[in-house]
Structure formats: structure tokens, C-alpha cells
Amino acid sequence: MAMVDMRDLLQHAYSNRYAVGAFEIVSLDFLQAIIEAAETARSPVILNIVEPHFGLYDLDLLMTATIRAAKRASVPVAVHMDHCSSLETVQTSMRLGCNGVKLDAASESFPVNVQRTREVVDMAHAWGIPVEGEIGYVTGMSRGDSESNSDVPVYTHVEEAKAYIEKTGVDFLAVSIGTVHGRVKGKPRLDYTRLARIQEKFSIPCVIHGGTGLGEQQYRKLIDHGVAKINYFTALAETNAKQLEANLKNKEMSYQQVFADVREKLSEEVKHHMQVLNSAGRAAEVLMQCRSWRNVENVICYNPDTEDQGLIEEMLTKGQQDLIQIPGVLNVEIGRSIDSNSRSNYCWLVSVANEEVLKSYKAHPIYENYTKKASLGITVNVFEIFVAVG
Ligand code: 13P
Fold it and tell me: Which of 1, 267, 296, 365 gives 20 to 30 Å between its CA and that of 38?
């Protein structure tokens, strides 16, 4: 059970001068390769899912596998939903279990970026989930992955960055200092002075988008200037395509070998990257410093004081629909007893994102309505338990 709080994860990286790689998951092969790399390198890792690539997979299935992989890993893992276009995607991804989010609003005007980011921060923090903001604009996300990118980035303005952090309350700051998504034409030139001036104004873990194509020295210098998370995808997509193409030409290879070999190549590249970012070998110390990210199940058991089955069913459904509205609630299931000696006949099984939100969950009027008072005019005899899962 090594899904961890992303705030603690990046704070540890920031304080100890290394960066955590955020590697994008676009298939089960990528997921297995990245987790395998993290396990072998004993490195913390961020599994990154991005909205512009939702068309490549069934999000529900991919997220289920990703969360499962994060939870059963023996190294620290966070699951981040990146490049969301709307509050709806943010909400959906939190319900699917991710524990870090970012909305894309950096190409908007400063006031609009602030306002939209603030809305995400309000929503995600109510779930106990940290938010990555972006000021300045790292271009190229919408161009397609392996194209050479000639877009000019919009550099982060230092004073704007300070105002943005203060007005939005973001937990991590993505900065634009010369990288672009995808490969750049020529050698990327990075503005470390800008990064240093941002860090002088505000101590906040910084994030670099467009990790592909940077040299080892550049990664190290970024880390020295306060970067704690580096996103990396295009190079992995290229490795995947190149290896697949070569393997498919080899008529000796079986179907299984073709894909196992591609996974191995991806994994090697991720492992190498973890060494460069200096996150390799740190899993144990990180685990000691990070709060684990565990869901909590609240089982609300009750007996309605009525024989009217219609009223009971109405209450069950209404409770399910109402309880899911509470910030931090991932899912609500209805349970019906199959044991005639049971103390209660019905329950709602409410899954809450993590222990941190329990205080606000318990203080919420909807929760109080279904646990402390009569609902829908039926007197209910309630008892409940809370259990941490995992
Ligand atoms: P690259 O594709 O350039 O590695 O960047 C990935 C990224 O920043 C995703 O947000």
C-alpha cells in the first residue's frame, strides 16, 4: 500500500534536491513498464494521466488499473490528472481516485487563469487533494506527440508568478522557462535565472512540463533551482513506436515477445531517467516521510421505522444521490442485508477519498441528515463505522 500524499512526496523531493518523474500512462504496457522501473530503481514515481489523450483508452478502466498499481506498489506513488480542460474533468478524475490535479488555464489572460485555478483549488482542497498551477505557458500539448515543436513558449513572469501563487493557493507551480511539450527544434535553452528569481520570491516546488529532449546537466540544474517534478512523455512514446516497429519486422518474435520487449525498453528508459533525476534509491526514506493515501469506508447501517417498501427504496436511492454530493466522496453503494439475524437491514457504503477529509465530511449537513436525523420522514435507527482501507 504505497499510494502517498503528493504534497509530502514533492515536499520531500524539493527539500532533498531531487525530482520525481511524472511519466504518462497511455496503456497497460506503459503502466507496467513504469511501475516495474520504479520498483527496480527503488524510486518514488508519479503516474500521470492527461485529458488530451483520453481518446486513446477507456478512462475508467485505465484509472482503475493505475490506482490499483499505485496501491499495491512497494515504492511511493502518486496519481496525477494533468491538463484538465474543465472542472468536470477535475471532479471526474478525483472520483476515479487520483490524488493530484492540474487544470489548463495558463493560455488564458492572467485574471482568467487566476479565477479558473482558484475554482479548482477550492474544489480539490475540499477533497484533500493538492493542485498544480501553471503561469506562463508551456506550448505544444495540443500538437501531437512526436512532432518537432517550433512553438515559442510564453515565459513565466516573476511578479505574476508571485501574485498567482498568493491569489490561487496552488501547491505546486508549473513554470515556463524554455521547454515545450514534444521535441524542440534545436537545443532547448533554459532560463535558470527566471527560476531562481521565482524561488527567491516564493519557496514552492516547481514543475517542468516538456521534459523530453533535455540533457542530464539541464535536469540537474533545474533541480538545483527548485524543480521537484518533471513531466516526461514524448521520448517514451518514440521508444515505444520505434521498438514496436522493429519487433514487428522480426518474424521470429512471438506476439508476447514483441510486447514484453517493448515494455522492457520503456522500463529501462524510465529507470535511467530516475537515476538522472536522483530519485532512484530513495523509496524507503520517502515512505517514512509521507502520509499514505488511504480511502476510508463509512458504513452507515440502519433500520427504517416503517414497513413501507416504497418509502424505504425511495430513501435508499435519495441517500445514495445525496451522499455522493459531499466533497471527498468517491462512491456510494446501497447494501441490503442477506442475514435475517442481522442488527440492520440496510446500509450505505460510502467511500471517502482519504482520512484528511473526514472532518469536513462529518460536519457536512447531508451526512448529518442521514446519520443523526430522520430522513424522508422515516425514523431510522442508525449505527455506523469508519474503516481505513489498505
Ligand atoms: P514531453 O512530452 O515533452 O516529455 O512533455 C510531457 C509533459 O510535459 C506532459 O505534461
Answer: 296
d(CA 162, CA 177): 15
Q: Is residue 141's pLDDT more than 90?
A: no
Q: Are 384 and 300 in contact (CB under 8 A)?
A: yes
CA dist., res. 182 & res. 201, Å (int): 30
223 vs 152, more confident:
223
Hey, CA dihedral for 3, 5, 8, 13, is it positive or negative? positive
Report the atom number in ligand 1 closest to the C-alpha of 212.
4
**Closest atom, ligand 1, to C-alpha of 234:** 2
Residue-wise pLDDT for 246-265, tens only, equals: 999 999 999 999 999 999 99
Q: What is the pLDDT of residue 253?
A: 95
182 lines ligand 1 (CB under 6 A): yes
Q: Say how many Å lie between the CA of residue 223 and the centre of ligand 1.
A: 17
Alpha-carbon distance of 195 to 202, in angstroms, equals 11
Confidence of residue 149 (pLDDT cuts 50, 70, 90): low
Q: Is the CB of 229 under 6 A from ligand 1?
A: no
> Using CA positions, which residue lies closest to atom 8 of ligand 1?
209
82 is catalytic: yes
Query: The C-alpha cell of 182 is what?
Result: 514534444
Task: Tell me the whole-structure pTM to 2 decimals.
Answer: 0.94
Query: Is residue 191 packed enough to be buried (19+ CB in 10 Å), middle (13-18) or exposed (0-12)?
Result: middle
Q: Residue 304: its pLDDT value, please?
A: 83
In angstroms, what is the span from residue 53 Cα to ligand 1's centroid? 12
Q: What is the pLDDT of residue 80?
A: 98
* Site of grid cell 430513501: 315
Q: Is 232 in the pocket of ligand 1 (CB under 6 A)?
A: yes
**Rounded to the nearest whole angstrom, what is the distance from the C-alpha of residue 215 to the centroid of ligand 1?**
15
